[in-house]
């Protein structure tokens, strides 16, 4: 087999990757600058901005709240999404195309619009529980991803194995747990992880629904960018980048999901 | 934070602790029992004022009254929007807004008059800041031009239209109150009339506003961020912001400060209002009273470098450099307060015109 | 195995339940119903009622007036202002798709045709930033593009003393949008290129075609379905972008998203905000349909001629 990627393309790829990484590396450099305002190139070395951010109860509170919210949203999405995917792929459902259309429609409507529509709807119904509003808003966006990912793995699962097990006398629930489950598990994991990330990073839905008590980390980051004067903003950005790297590791090592799978 | 600010912060923390202790200890359970376990939502501003309210005033109040106060940051028009959106079933009990919005809130029946009998701290409030009982000022700022200390600011606003400032100015965005001040300045430059007359000529002055466009780098939504960028030298001059957003950074040693062109300056009155039908009104009233108590006012004013609306507070010479206090000093500076009722009716149309100039 | 006794203990009731449940005609419907109902109530209903509200008029104190009016839509199109913001949104979204395409091809080729380690390096570097919040990434660009930032510093090192200020221009918004949405172009393209039979390319190379020719005549046409998916994704996402233009556009280059926020949060004009939102939905839908359709038809023709 000959080399199919030419050196010219390799160079271009290297340059593009550098540009992709640049906006993540520059805040990192600035976060260690020992100056009262943000300067480039950074001067001196200090970790005091990190200490300041870690000691900040607001930053911690928002971070923990976002984790909690994403965990709830992932659970709800999986509980609703797995049966739905099974129903769509394994059973006859009347009006299947229309249903699929409804289920995937949140992916087409711009998030910022979904957010306002929900805000208007909630205030019309005098529905005030903020946490519940956020859970509903995020689940609306995450559910289609879960259903898509889990459906795909149901479709890919080998039905001959199920038939063989059934013929050999395995009762349906055993077929479900021993034959189907191991095959759809990667799809469920990938859907769940993707759902968690979408919820954790959401801005356009939360910006309409959040309040002072329920203030997800993306909104907090935005207010920090607006009001902060010193490199602590670069430090908090760097911490978020470290957290993302940790997430990559967890996803790849612990869950054994290839990152590429999430995007497909 | 710089060393200066850290030292200052330490002093402040001590001061607040000292004032909180005697208030809390003797009277706590008996006097403030009514508030126990209750919660109120308060809409506040961002920037250093918001920071101080969140970090100092609210925790002390919560401790004294054994209640919970949740603060949400916003700017005046957004805070009014929040009150409107929840008018039938209010969520907020106290709102911090600029004086500009008090007539709106009154007309739309969003707020109540303050109960004088339950707010002893109102006794020291200057009449000028009582708004007929429909709210009280909390902090008086001066709105003017701010600049990087490396540049020398022009003595007149008219100079800003000169080509030498191309791309060097930051202008406040139409969502913020000081945007109206800018429109008055533009009208005044065009007509040559003082602010008091120029404010009625704004409709005819948008051509003057459009002429300034080549000199504007961007429209900023947020005072602290604009102050930051001017301090970094990204822009030379910022057009109209309240001193409360600028001076705290000046005092921290950042190379940004304010200047006062000969046409005059504006009064920026930050106020609090009592939301009509808001939850736990008794706690809300106690909170508003707390905001006006002399010790809170002193610490609050020193932190954000604003003048208090109440009489009888002593400041150090260092602080008095930045604020116009007491009342006689404010009057001497002749700070201009626009005709808000006239302006409010036009605000939406003006925002659209500003969009038409800058957003295309 | 621990599963054995547990399964045994529960097998009777579970089996009975499952047999009874899975044998009815409506099992599929039962399984789908909860998710479907959830989305019908919390997505379809709110969005439809928002669209309906865009036909109501607005009175000064924020109370909606009954009746149907097209006032909000005529206002959208009668004023030069809103039309130009609409055009800017379309322009930025198209340019973002175009730039993303140009950058994505080399990356996709590296993923689909490079060795395993190159493919993995590119994939991880492209996808990992997706886990970093958009706010943080936009901030990163702010630190690079501002007047005293990294970009200006680098230009100064190579002797350019008065660097162009990119922050708070449409360029800044475009650069950050391309960065944020690039992965959505790369992945479908890489998948499409990966599906192309390598032997076709190799045959063409053996027959003397240059690499460029192979790309133009084989790789590009056969990757069009992937391109269509990627382009419609990037267009939809960037036309609805809010955070990036807000942080990097400095109110000089608002897109429809910013306009919606301004109408609703600052001016409290809900019906007009709803009208802009409806317009955004219609725009995204149309572009998706038209684009996917056109490319599919084109693709059919291309493959025919390739045969």
TrEMBL record, chain A:
Residues 63-251 form the ABC transmembrane type-1 domain. It is found in: Cell inner membrane; Cell membrane. Keywords: Cell inner membrane, Cell membrane, Membrane, Transmembrane, Transmembrane helix, Transport. Gene3D superfamilies: MetI-like. It comes from the Bacteria. One of its GO terms (biological process) is transmembrane transport. The chain crosses the membrane at residues 12-32, 63-86, 98-121, 127-147, 188-209, 229-251. Pfam families: BPD_transp_1 (PF00528). InterPro entries: MetI-like (IPR000515), MetI-like_sf (IPR035906). PROSITE patterns: ABC_TM1 (PS50928). This is Putative spermidine/putrescine transport system permease protein. GO terms for cellular component: plasma membrane. It is a multi-pass membrane protein. Belongs to the binding-protein-dependent transport system permease family.
From TrEMBL, chain B:
One of its GO terms (molecular function) is thiamine pyrophosphate binding. SUPFAM superfamilies: Periplasmic binding protein-like II (SSF53850). GO terms for cellular component: outer membrane-bounded periplasmic space. GO terms for biological process: thiamine transport. Gene3D superfamilies: Periplasmic binding protein-like II. Residues 1-27 form the signal peptide. Keywords: Periplasm, Signal. It comes from the Bacteria. The keyword Signal applies. This is Putative spermidine/putrescine transport system substrate-binding protein.
């Amino acid at each position: 087999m000959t080399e199919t990627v030419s050196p010219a393309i390799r160079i271009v790829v290297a340059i593009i990757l550098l540009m992709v990484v640049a906006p993540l590396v520059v805040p990192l450099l600035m976060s260690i600058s020992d100056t009262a305002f943000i300067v480039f190139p950074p001067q001196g070395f200090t970790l005091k901005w990190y200490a300041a951010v870690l000691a900040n109860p607001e930053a911690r509170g928002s971070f923990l709240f976002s984790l909690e919210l994403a965990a709830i949203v992932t659970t709800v999405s999986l509980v609703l999404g797995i049966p739905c995917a099974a129903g769509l792929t394994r059973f006859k459902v009347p009006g299947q195309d229309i249903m699929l259309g409804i289920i995937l429609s949140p992916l087409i409507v711009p998030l910022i619009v979904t957010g306002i529509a929900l805000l208007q709807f909630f205030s019309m119904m005098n529905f005030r529980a903020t946490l519940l509003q956020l859970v509903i808003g995020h689940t609306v966006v995450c559910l289609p991803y879960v259903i898509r990912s889990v459906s795909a793995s149901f479709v890919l699962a080998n039905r001959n194995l199920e038939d063989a097990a059934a013929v050999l006398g395995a009762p349906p629930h055993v077929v479900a747990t021993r034959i189907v489950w191991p095959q759809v598990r990667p799809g469920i994991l990938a859907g769940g992880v993707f759902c968690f990330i979408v919820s954790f990073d959401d801005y356009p839905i939360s910006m309409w629904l959040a309040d002072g008590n329920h203030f997800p980390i993306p909104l907090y980051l935005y207010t920090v960018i607006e009001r902060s004067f010193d490199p602590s903003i670069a430090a908090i950005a760097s911490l978020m980048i470290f957290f993302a790297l940790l997430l990559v590791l967890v996803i790849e090592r612990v869950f054994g999901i290839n990152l590429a799978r999430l995007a497909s | 934070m710089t060393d200066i600010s850290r030292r200052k912060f330490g002093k402040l923390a001590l001061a607040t602790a000292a004032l909180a202790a005697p208030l809390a200890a003797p009277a706590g359970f008996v006097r403030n029992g009514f508030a126990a376990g209750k919660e109120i939502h308060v809409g506040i501003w961002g920037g250093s004022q918001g920071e101080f309210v969140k970090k100092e005033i609210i925790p002390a109040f919560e401790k004294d009254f054994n209640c919970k106060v949740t603060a949400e940051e916003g700017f005046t028009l957004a805070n009014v929007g929040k009150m409107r959106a929840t008018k039938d079933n209010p969520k907020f009990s106290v709102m911090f807004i600029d004086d500009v919005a008090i007539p709106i809130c009154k007309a739309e029946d969003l707020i109540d008059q303050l109960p004088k009998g339950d707010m002893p701290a109102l006794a020291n409030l200057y009449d000028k800041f009582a708004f007929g009982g429909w709210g009280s000022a909390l902090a008086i700022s001066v709105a003017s031009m701010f600049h990087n200390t490396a540049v020398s600011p022009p003595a007149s606003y008219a100079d800003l239209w000169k080509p030498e400032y191309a791309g060097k100015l930051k202008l406040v965005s139409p969502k913020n109150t000081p945007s109206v001040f800018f429109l008055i300045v533009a009208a005044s430059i065009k007509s040559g009339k003082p602010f008091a007359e120029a404010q009625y000529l704004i409709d005819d002055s948008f051509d003057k506003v459009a002429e300034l466009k080549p000199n504007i780098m961007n429209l900023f939504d947020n005072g602290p961020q604009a102050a930051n960028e001017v301090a970094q030298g990204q822009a030379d001059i910022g057009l109209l912001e309240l001193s409360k957003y600028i001076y705290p950074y000046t005092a921290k040693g950042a190379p940004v400060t304010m200047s006062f062109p000969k046409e005059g300056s504006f009064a920026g009155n930050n106020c609090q209002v009592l939301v009509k039908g808001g939850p736990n009104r008794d706690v809300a009233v106690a909170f508003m009273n707390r905001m006006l108590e002399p010790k809170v006012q002193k610490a609050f004013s020193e932190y954000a470098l604003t003048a208090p609306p109440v009489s009888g507070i002593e400041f150090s010479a260092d602080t008095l450099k930045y604020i116009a206090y007491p009342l006689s000093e404010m009057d001497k500076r002749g700070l201009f307060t626009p005709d808000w009722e006239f302006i409010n009716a036009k605000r939406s149309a003006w925002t659209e015109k500003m969009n038409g100039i800058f957003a295309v | 195995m621990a599963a054995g006794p547990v399964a045994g203990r529960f097998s009777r009731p579970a089996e009975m339940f499952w047999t009874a449940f899975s044998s009815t005609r409506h099992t599929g419907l039962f399984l789908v119903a909860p998710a479907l109902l959830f989305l019908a109530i919390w997505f379809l209903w709110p969005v439809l009622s928002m669209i309906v509200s865009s036909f109501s008029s607005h009175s000064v104190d924020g109370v909606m007036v009954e009746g149907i009016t097209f006032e909000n839509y005529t206002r959208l199109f009668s004023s030069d202002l809103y039309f130009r913001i609409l055009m800017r949104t379309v322009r930025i979204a198209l340019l973002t798709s175009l730039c993303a395409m140009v950058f994505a091809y080399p990356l996709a080729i590296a993923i689909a045709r490079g060795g395993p380690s190159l493919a993995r390096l590119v994939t991880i570097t492209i996808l990992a930033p997706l886990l970093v919040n958009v706010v943080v990434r936009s901030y990163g660009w702010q630190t690079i593009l501002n007047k005293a930032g990294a970009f200006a510093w680098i230009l100064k090192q190579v002797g350019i003393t008065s660097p162009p200020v990119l922050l708070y221009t449409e360029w800044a918004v475009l650069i950050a949008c391309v960065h944020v949405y690039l992965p959505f172009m790369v992945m479908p393209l890489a998948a499409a290129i990966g599906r192309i039979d390598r032997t076709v390319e190799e045959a063409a190379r053996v027959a003397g075609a240059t690499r460029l020719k192979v790309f133009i005549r084989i790789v590009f046409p056969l990757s069009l379905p992937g391109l269509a998916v990627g382009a419609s994704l990037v267009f939809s996402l960037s036309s609805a972008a809010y955070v990036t233009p807000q942080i990097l556009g400095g109110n000089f280059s608002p897109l429809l998203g910013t306009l919606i926020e301004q109408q609703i949060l600052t001016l409290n004009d809900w019906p007009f905000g709803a009208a802009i939102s409806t317009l955004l939905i219609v725009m995204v839908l149309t572009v998706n349909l038209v684009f996917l359709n056109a490319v599919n038809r084109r693709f059919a023709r291309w493959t025919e001629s390739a045969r």
